[in-house]
Amino acid sequence: MARHIVARTSDIPPGGNKVFGVEGRDIVVFHVNGEFFALLNRCPHEGAPLEKAACVARLTSPEPGVYQRSRVGELLRCPWHGWEFDMRNGQSYFDPKRVKVRSYPVAIENGEALQKGPYVAETFPVLVEDSYVIIET
Questions:
Q1: Is the CB of residue 33 less than 8 Å from the CB of residue 74?
Q2: Confidence band (pLDDT; 50, 70, 90) for 92?
Q3: Are the C-beta atoms of 62 and 68 separated by less than 8 Å?
Q4: Quick one: CA torsion of 34, 92, 50, 43, rounded to 10 degrees?
Q5: Cα dist. 51→43, 106, 125 in Å?
Q6: Maximum distance among all alpha carbons in the chain?
Q7: Are 81 and 88 in contact (CB under 8 A)?
Q8: Are β-strands 84-86 and 66-77 bridged in parallel, bridged antiparallel, or unpaired?
Q9: What parts of the sequence cross the membrane (predicted)?
Q10: 133 or 27: whose pLDDT is higher?
């Protein structure tokens, strides 16, 4: 599996998302409750962009008239037809065995720990002395 560095964590604000083109696919990364989730940016029903989906909570009812909210912001509601998906794994709630949005593993790593690429530009030390810029070669 290829790794792609797509953004700094600060590029995606809490509660927000951002779409990245990776290997010809649009992948949307969500930042919810301090975690990051990546999904294919396409609803499996008719292709609506999930970046426009509402991030909603799971609502359950242990008995009539009693409602409980959990996992606030971790469920997606498609903007076109309201199909709902679990942001953690792409699973749908209405037909979990057959309908799913492709999800991708997300890792957060310190920039200094990432391996340098094979291409490195040649650099030169720069000194500033008495308002003159000097480049050493």
A1: yes
A2: very high
A3: yes
A4: 160
A5: 10, 17, 43
A6: 78
A7: no
A8: antiparallel
A9: none
A10: 27
Going from the C-alpha of 108 to that of each of 29, 62, 101, the distances in angstroms are: 12, 36, 22
- What single string gives the DSSP state of each residue in 107-119? ----GGGSPPPS-
Beta partners for residue 100, in sequence order: 91
- Per-residue pLDDT tens for 26-73? 999 999 999 999 999 999 999 999 999 999 999 999 999 999 999 999
N-term to C-term CA, the chain: 41
What length is written for the chain? 137
Q: What are 128's two structure tokens?
A: 């500033």
Rounded-to-integer distance, Cα 93 and Cα 79, Å: 16
- Within 8 A by CB and 6+ apart from 68, the residues are 59, 60, 61, 62
The type of residue at 61 is: S
- The DSSP annotation for 72-121 comes to EEEEEE-TTT--EEETTT-BBSSSTTT-B--EE------GGGSPPPS---
Give pTM, 2 decimals. Answer: 0.78
In the numeric block, the tokens 């593993």 are attached to: 105
